[in-house]
Design goal:
about 220 residues, Hypothetical protein af1432, globular, binds fe (ii) ion, alpha+beta, 9 helices, four-stranded mixed beta sheet
Length: about 220
Amino acid sequence: MKKLTLADVKSNPYVDNFIRQTEKYLIALGYTDHGFRHVGIVSQRCMDLAKQLGLSQHDQELAGIVGYCHDMANFLGRTQHHYWAAMLFSQIFIPEYEPEDVSRVCQAIVSHDKDDLRIVDKLSAVLILADKSDVHRSRVIDSGAKDFDQDIHDRVNYAATGNSLTVDRKKKYVTLKIQIDTKQAEPIDYFEIFIDRMSFCRLAAEFLGYKFVLVINNFRLS
Ligand SMILES: [Fe+2]
Ligand SMILES: [Fe+2]
């Protein structure tokens, strides 16, 4: 049995096609980006976080994999896409790869959008923080499928002109900083949309032994 590597996962034609189909489907729906742009950013952010948190080399690799694959089942539908992604992942990789690697990756993928969330693995915590922090205007897809101004998700993402996620290992803070263009959306809009995301981030940071801090336009909110 082989250990999972990010290179093997990225070069797998099924993974590639699932993400491609997801891009097509969500463009058709006019939904924010969950394709190669998003999973590329989340994958890199997962690896950076894992490294900063002092996870092992192999766990850094697995963190990159969970980031890359977490949204690949959106082409089957938004609802339960986290479960579908884990099922697809296991179908592809079970035959040849380490059982522990596959099971940890599947569990982390499912955790990124689970209602009754209980985090039991650092991979899940890292993915949640990396995924929920990708709030940026480049995620907004203008497909003409719906009125941009009517959709608060688009409005808030479009208003976000910058974000950064940093780890302070001494003070034990994980800090998400977001720059919001208040001409496009007020910070209160952000809360309306992202309150669930923030509680996910808080749980994830706590599991890692950190406090989650959210800063919007240099104003510390937690
Ligand atoms: Fe997702
Ligand atoms: Fe995502």
